[in-house]
Design brief:
RuBisCO_lsu_C_sf (chains A, B), EC 4.1.1.39 (chains A, B), RuBisCO_lsu_C (chains A, B), TIM Barrel, RuBisCO_lsu_N_sf (chains A, B), five-stranded mixed beta sheet, alpha/beta, homodimer, Alpha-Beta Plaits, lyase (chains A, B)
Amino acid sequence: MTDVLTATYELYLAEGESPEGKARGIALEQTVEMPADCLPGDIAERMVGRIRTLEPRADHWVLEIDYPLAAIGGELTQCLNLLFGNISLQSGIRLVQVAWPPSLLRRWGGPGLGVSGLRARLDVGARPLLCAALKPMGLSAPALAARCAAFARGGVDLIKDDHGLADQPDAPFAERLNACQDAVRQANRRSGGRSLYLPNVTAAPQALGERLAAARDAGCEMVLISPWLTGLETLRWARDEYGLALMAHPAMTGGLFLPRHGISPALLLGELFRIAGADAVIYPNVGGRFRFSADTCQAINHALRRPLEGLASAWPTPGGGVDVKRAGHWKQAYGPDTILLIGGSLYAQGDIEAASRALMQAIRD
Amino acid sequence: MTDVLTATYELYLAEGESPEGKARGIALEQTVEMPADCLPGDIAERMVGRIRTLEPRADHWVLEIDYPLAAIGGELTQCLNLLFGNISLQSGIRLVQVAWPPSLLRRWGGPGLGVSGLRARLDVGARPLLCAALKPMGLSAPALAARCAAFARGGVDLIKDDHGLADQPDAPFAERLNACQDAVRQANRRSGGRSLYLPNVTAAPQALGERLAAARDAGCEMVLISPWLTGLETLRWARDEYGLALMAHPAMTGGLFLPRHGISPALLLGELFRIAGADAVIYPNVGGRFRFSADTCQAINHALRRPLEGLASAWPTPGGGVDVKRAGHWKQAYGPDTILLIGGSLYAQGDIEAASRALMQAIRD
């Protein structure tokens, strides 16, 4: 079927709730937002979500709803609203899967570069990429730029701003952008490398546009953005209006990932971020400071890479748990189409350049 | 103190977690994102959040952290990220209160009109306002406009698009905007009333800007926006660049409102939405289809109205549970500085104009 979008929800019932009542409530709430018997004309037939299946599992029910595309139009923001906007405020509803109409996927477009495009841009064969996080906040722009240069000399593929670097007085955006991009460019020139610097452009709409333009004008090819702070469709905007590749950060998404309510991480960080235009998506790796399981991480990887109507695949970018000893493990576990994001552990070794070189060697081996 | 922002969190400990360890982890995670012993120079002193108090309660701990303003700069998006960005992905952390530095509040500005400004614009004395929701999706623009006219003739103060009305084929945004605004303007001219039509402008950045401009150019004075879909700072942008008053809708915020993790509704929907520029904030009223308690609703009301460094107070806009019988109850419970949002129940009565008039009368009495 191509004229509907099918969404799959898990329903966890509270006392007094019936599965049919809850399912019917969702189908109305997310479309017409009024009782079926108040709907004029053929609107109940044309616009209300249609319950396709409703089946019991051990501790929940699985509901499939067909939503008419007329309830979406062509906009991803409204699609997100339709899938989970109001029912985010109810209880016991978890959105786990969407069968996407090809027409919408083609319209929204997905990654501009994706896995093969970024690989070609960096001239890197079939191995994981290494991404370092530039930090900490509080350093001056020249001090951050010196760290960028060391990462680049050490051969790190991608050097991204910490997602908390915005426009603070110690290293204002414009000054940091130019200093860091220059530092990486010079290091590349000397080494023949192709390291990229990714400034964090996350900001209010007007500042975001200005930072995207500044990043492009400074010669950056890829930027970091936290779409749950800026709105998901800022990814498409950055891709289409500024021609930049995009690494997406999951800041502020976490409220949705508790048990029995929310959106599955694979659907939000994997599919929705990819469809909206992310070339790479950061997520908290299993075993780190956060709470994703090994299965969740693999599900995100799969969602970012799986065939999806010709959309480019995107790079899973697990953060946490990567060091020289474990690089081989993650390369094996996640495969070559992965960006390994490394934060504190390179800094802990003191000589950033040597530590980067050793880690790159471990990844190449 | 004016050089720090103090945030209060509730900590719910998992097995093996210590309150001090969790508190220290948050202070590092939300600022420098690296272990304290890797921090160069005076950065540990200057940039890391400082634990102010950490006290036990029956089933959790209460933590106050002082964050240096240098970790924020002047941007609300980064402030939100600092308060809860990465730790949204951890477990058992609930952000419940912020002591705002006056310098930031003045910078961000709050509601453009607020309670007294909107009251003056509508020339309405000390009574609650009534807001009707225009629906359902699937109607044509002329059919929706006819409903607008009936609401306006019935004396409804504010007539807002359903938040699911975006740019669907049955009633494309531009056509709906013009038809509905014309209908309300004509009804006002005949009746001498001052009803406002609020189009839903929620969309991707570029479309959002175009819709804000179109709404302004069509003569609208207030619009509806879902800031958790578009990014919180789109409120400020709409206020400053387009001079529009703003009603904010809570779509997609709900993942944050589960027990023991997230952000308190009063802080997010009350304070943060108000500070960002919302003149009115919709929330799900107690007893409706959603899950806020009576205390939560009153806490949101308080946060929207309380004195806050000279920022205008904003209108609590509880949705659900309002009809002719209960109008007096809510007027009593919530006071005159409230917008009562009414959805399905006016439609259920068939004659929208007569139903609106009866409800307005109940509110005035």
